[in-house]
Amino acid sequence: MIDQLRTTTVTRNRYLLRVGVCGETVRCLGIDQPLFKRGDQVVLDTDRGDMLAKVMQQLPEDNPPGDAPDQQSEEQVSDVSQILRLASEDDLQQQQQLKLRAEQDFKAWADRIEQWKVEVELVDLEWTLDGEKLILYVLNSRGPECTKLAMQAHAQGLGVIDVVPVSATGVSIPPVEKSGGGCGSGGCGSGGCSK
What we know:
Blueprint: H1 2-7, E1 12-19, E2 24-31, E3 41-46, E4 49-58, H2 74-78, E5 81-86, H3 89-115, E6 121-127, E7 134-139, H4 144-155, E8 161-167, E9 170-171
Parallel strand pairs: 2-5, 7-8
Antiparallel strand pairs: 1-2, 1-4, 3-4, 3-5, 6-7, 8-9
């Protein structure tokens, strides 16, 4: 019986989701979950924390039926966000409260950015679903000004925040560096500097 359990493979349904106020599109896994349909609100485990996301579509399987299953390493699988559950009524109410909180916080953060002379423009902000982490979306490229903002906020006792640069095409994705990352490689404020 135990040997049968060990050899059981887990079906990994893959989805395309829209996450956050800036509509970042992400690919994710739904492990041991029911099939989600377009428009479903789900709770997604991300590197920033749990966030609400909207299902855009289920992605086709990597291998046609009858082919050998994909032999992905744990590292490859862990790079993809995972759906935790279908969003509950409590999750949706919590998100609404956090949206109001973000609207109230916007001016204070815009004023701080101006006072600290950080050369970014605040576009939007949002809280993770647990209300523990703030994500600032700024008009800028990924670089020293984003890091400066995250460090200044931390120095002022405002906690760890994520500073996410956006452009006219959406959330800025950092180029893959063969030399290995460094400060801001996971997003300014992501903790990349403290490792």
